């Protein structure tokens, strides 16, 4: 009996030595990560905070699709499509927000030629994604849109960034007459009152009837917009509206989350 107890004690001692050694080797070889399910390396909570991404990211709500519209040409071969995305997160915006637009046929199936793209959305923003004159190789019945945050990178705006630094003025809408092509155009001036150069500015136009229903979409892009610059732009309306236009609105989209945008002045 005494011999058996002695064997148990010796085995226990060797077991403790083995566990201590194994734990020491593990700690030497193991590199903590932000996805190991362990609160280590100074994290605020498990796998977030400290050297890991903010714990706020775990509470974020995916952007929502609020509206979607489309307009076909007279032959039904091309479409102008748009959908409105709303970001319910008031402090966080997203880069690389991927979207897919499917054209649905009369049989309920997806017509070949789906559109794929990526965009950004600012904190608390409601914005439109517009695609113009896209080929529809079939008879279209409806539009289906999906967005994905799987590749999105979330961030907060810098304190010196403000959307109102890009000002639109002197808007003029006019109908076009032969030999001019298209239906109408809107011209205006956009001013860069920010402290940085912007490489890509999208300007959108949305037309409404008297009931506030969207009846037309258009957009244009200007490039390399310098600090303090004023530039004329033109929005082209290629086809007649289905109803009389009561008003139109012009929106400016600038990716204020893009780090490259701010290199000109702040050198970050």
Quick recap:
This protein is mostly beta strands and 268 residues long. It has 2 helices and 13 strands; from the N terminus they run αβββββββββββββα. Strands 3, 4, 6 and 7 form a 4-stranded antiparallel beta sheet that branches.
Number of strands: 13
Residue-averaged pLDDT, rounded? 86
What is the end-to-end distance? 75 Å
What is the CATH homology-level superfamily of the largest domain?
Answer: abc- transporter (atp binding component) like domain
Order of helices and strands: HEEEEEEEEEEEEEH
CATH architecture of the largest domain: Distorted Sandwich
Radius of gyration: 28 Å
Proportion of residues in extended strands? over 45%
**Helix run count:** 2
* CATH fold topology of the largest domain: Coagulation Factor XIII, Chain A, domain 1
Q: What's the helical proportion of residues?
A: 10-25%
Helix and strand content put the structural class at mainly beta
Q: Quick one: CATH class of the largest domain? A: Mainly Beta
| Total number of distinct structural domains | 3
Major sheet description: 4 strands, antiparallel
Globally, the shape reads: elongated
Low-confidence stretches: none
Secondary-structure map:
Blueprint: H1 2-29, E1 64-72, E2 78-86, E3 93-105, E4 110-121, E5 126-135, E6 140-148, E7 153-155, E8 166-175, E9 184-192, E10 198-208, E11 214-225, E12 230-237, E13 247-253, H2 263-266
């Amino acid at each position: 009996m005494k011999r058996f107890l002695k064997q148990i004690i010796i085995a226990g001692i060797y077991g403790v030595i083995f566990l201590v050694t194994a734990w020491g080797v593990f700690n030497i070889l193991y590199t903590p990560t932000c996805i190991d399910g362990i609160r280590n390396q100074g994290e605020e909570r498990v796998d977030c905070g400290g050297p890991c991404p903010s714990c706020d990211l775990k509470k974020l709500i995916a952007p929502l699709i609020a509206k979607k519209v489309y307009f076909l040409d007279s032959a039904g071969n091309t479409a102008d499509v748009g959908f409105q995305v709303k970001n319910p997160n008031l402090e966080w915006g997203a880069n690389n927000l991927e979207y897919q637009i499917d054209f649905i046929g009369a049989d309920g199936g997806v017509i070949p030629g789906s559109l794929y793209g990526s965009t950004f959305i600012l904190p608390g923003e409601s914005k439109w994604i517009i695609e113009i004159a896209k080929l529809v190789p079939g008879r279209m019945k409806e539009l289906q849109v999906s967005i994905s945050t799987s590749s999105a990178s979330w961030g907060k705006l810098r304190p010196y960034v403000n959307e109102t630094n890009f000002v639109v003025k002197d808007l003029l809408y006019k109908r076009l007459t032969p030999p001019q092509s298209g239906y109408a155009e809107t011209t205006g001036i956009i001013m860069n009152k920010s402290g940085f150069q912007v490489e890509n500015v999208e300007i959108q136009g949305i037309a409404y009837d008297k009931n506030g229903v969207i009846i037309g979409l258009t957009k244009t892009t200007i490039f390399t917009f310098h600090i303090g610059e004023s530039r004329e732009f033109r929005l082209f309306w290629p086809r007649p509206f289905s109803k009389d236009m009561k008003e139109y609105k012009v929106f400016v989209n600038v990716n204020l989350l893009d780090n490259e945008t701010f290199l000109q002045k702040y050198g970050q």
